[in-house]
Amino acid sequence: MEIDKGRANANILMGRMLHQLQKTVPLHICSYYGGNRVNAIASAAQAEIVVGAEDLPLLEQKAGELTAVFREEYHAADPKLFVRLEKTEDGTFSALDTETTERIISLLTALPDGMQEMSQEMPGLVQTSCNLGAAELREEGFFFTSSVRSAVNSKKDMLVEKILQIIRLTGGEGSRSGDYPGWAYNPDSLLKNTVLEAYQKVCGIEASVEAVHAGMECGIFAASIPDLDCVSIGPTMGEVHTPGEYLSIASVDRTYQVLRYVLENARYLQ
Question: Is this prediction's pTM over 0.70?
Answer without folding.
Answer: yes
